[in-house]
Write a sequence for this structure.
């Protein structure tokens, strides 16, 4: 799945212009929230072998964040994301020494900062467009059992551009519910093309 970066960028740029045009209406309204996320990894293929055959490609996670509404059209956020560990069975191989079974496990974590543009379509509903950066780490483990038991651990970090679209609904003056879909351009040392984040959550304004 890909996003139209020109549309997302144009929406955020329009919000930035609106922020400047309405400087007299600027406010600083802090908020905090969390999203429940599903992260989907799009793996690369090397020499005919996909890394998706080695590692799990879907991860569930929690994404707490804090932010501030600069005005009704523009917000900024920083947050932290962490997923649960997901395992993938590699099957087994029988050799002269016996049967060896393999399994990998991986989890993701990281920080992000986003600029979010907003466009109201009703009194309670805003369409959202975001651009930002994320610093991510993938932690992986390989377990071999049977005739050749061993455990190998490693991690890889990556800085990724991210962009997203979504919508938010005001439950009341303080509480908002929102859903977002974000694209993150990751590489992780040549193993992935991108990550997609599907998130839904709540935030509270102070």
């Amino acid at each position: 799945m890909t996003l139209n970066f020109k549309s997302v960028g144009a929406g955020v740029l329009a919000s930035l212009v609106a922020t400047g045009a309405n400087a007299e209406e600027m406010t600083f309204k802090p908020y905090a929230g969390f999203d429940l996320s599903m992260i989907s990894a799009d793996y690369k293929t090397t020499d005919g072998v996909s890394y998706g055959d080695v590692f799990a490609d879907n991860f569930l996670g929690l994404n707490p964040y804090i932010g501030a509404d600069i005005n009704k059209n523009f917000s900024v956020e920083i947050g932290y994301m962490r997923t649960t560990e997901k395992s993938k069975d590699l099957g087994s191989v029988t050799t002269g020494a016996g049967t060896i079974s393999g399994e990998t496990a991986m989890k993701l974590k990281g920080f992000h900062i986003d600029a979010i543009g907003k466009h109201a379509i009703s009194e309670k509903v805003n369409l959202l467009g975001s651009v930002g950066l994320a610093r991510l780490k993938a932690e992986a483990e390989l377990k071999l059992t049977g005739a050749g038991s061993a455990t190998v651990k490693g991690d890889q970090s990556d800085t990724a551009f991210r962009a997203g679209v979504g919508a938010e609904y005001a439950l009341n003056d303080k509480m908002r519910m929102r859903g977002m879909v974000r694209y993150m351009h990751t590489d992780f040392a040549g193993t992935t093309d991108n990550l997609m984040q599907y998130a839904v959550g709540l935030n509270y304004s102070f």
